[in-house]
Write a structure and sequence with these properties.
binds flavin mononucleotide, TIM Barrel
Length: about 325
């Protein structure tokens, strides 16, 4: 199997759960971790502004379990000093990797001159990387896109990749779209290949790995050192386990309907245990919609889940659905 080393940290298998805001909370990370196959899991992005102002709900988000390791905490912001202070906290919390977001295309983040906006201001991006590198002894990574997709330098990932390398970043992740594209079009894997050829630090490829086979194909086509998977893991949280099997030359393991039931029950039990009823309701509904995509009888289960207003009723509804068997649609 191909290898990914981020600084002194070996990521085995070389498959990474992408940071996804509103998704990669501790329950989802733990769910993915327990299914196996992910070499590294990422936290949803954390605002350095909020952290350095001591905003408690954001600080609470940074808490993680030992079982999640290795884990990357991703931070974003525009101010080098605040970013460095936030990175220092990431290290203090003993995360395995500190990742800097330079790819978020959301308007709110762009207007704050962070995320992908930093690709339009490489001197500032460099200052941030330098400041974070100075305070970190744990591995530092940077995640970015092809470029802003507009202005005088629409595609400048190569330049940013070289800056990262020169400033001692341990690995970079490239999502092969511009910020302007958001999630339209396709991730251009040829650019991932070009970056891999141009720099010596590890490159993690990202974008449009939809099936386990795509992870193998991305490595074959780009020679990237690792593969990051985001959206596909919502519909198929086993994608890491399946891709890991393929990379090891083994057959793809089947997922039984019993395993799917157990996954939903375990994930939702954590949510019900820890969250207030309103948040639990919201989280369970959104994850149930994703987890049941393609499942026999899914429409009926989604309807049942949609009409529930007490989080405690979810678990019996799921048990009942699976007990009725796949012919229940
Ligand atoms: C709901 C959602 C939230 C995301 N949040 C983040 C984030 O917090 N930080 C980040 O770097 N990328 C974020 N992304 C982008 C993903 O990490 C990834 O780069 C992108 O989805 C492409 O990979 P995929 O095709 O495997 O999904 C997010 C994507 C989605 C769909």
């Amino acid at each position: 199997m191909t290898g990914l080393a981020i600084g002194g940290l070996r990521i085995v298998p070389p498959l990474v759960l992408a940071p996804m805001a509103g998704i990669c909370d501790r329950y989802f990370r733990l769910t993915i971790r327990r299914l196996g196959g992910a070499g590294l899991v990422s936290m949803e992005f954390i605002s350095s502004e909020a952290v350095t102002r001591g905003v408690k709900p954001i600080l609470d988000k940074m808490v993680f379990a030992q079982e999640e390791r290795p884990l990357a905490i991703q931070i974003y912001g525009k101010d080098p000093q605040r970013m460095a202070d936030c990175a220092a906290l990431v290290e203090e919390m003993r995360a395995d990797v500190c990742d800097i977001n330079m790819g978020c295309p959301a308007n709110k983040v762009l207007k704050g001159c962070s995320g992908a906006a930093l690709m339009g201001d490489l001197p500032r991006a460099a200052k941030i990387i330098e400041a974070c590198r100075k305070v970190l002894s744990i591995p530092l990574t940077v995640k970015f896109r092809l470029g802003l997709g507009k202005g005088s330098d629409p595609v400048n990932y190569m330049e940013l990749g070289r800056i990262c390398q020169d400033l001692g970043v341990d690995a970079v992740t490239l999502h092969g779209r511009t910020a302007r594209q958001m999630y339209t079009g396709v991730s251009d894997w040829d650019q991932i290949r070009a970056l891999k050829q141009a720099i010596d630090i590890p490159v993690i490829g990202n974008g449009d790995v939809k099936r386990p086979e795509d992870a193998v194909e991305m490595i074959d086509r780009t020679s990237c050192d690792g593969v990051m998977i985001g959206r596909a893991s919502l519909k198929d949280p086993w994608i890491f386990r399946k891709a890991a099997a393929l990379l090891a030359g083994q057959p793809v393991p089947e997922v039984t309907s019993g395993e799917r039931k157990d996954l939903m029950l375990a994930h939702f039990r954590w949510i019900i245990r820890d969250e207030d009823p309103r948040t639990a309701l919201h989280k369970i509904r959104s994850f149930a919609g994703r987890y049941t995509k393609g499942l026999a009888g899914a429409r009926k289960l989604r309807q049942a889940i949609g009409s529930i207003n007490d989080p405690n009723e979810f678990l019996p509804a799921i048990e009942e659905h699976f007990a009725a068997g796949p012919g229940s649609e």
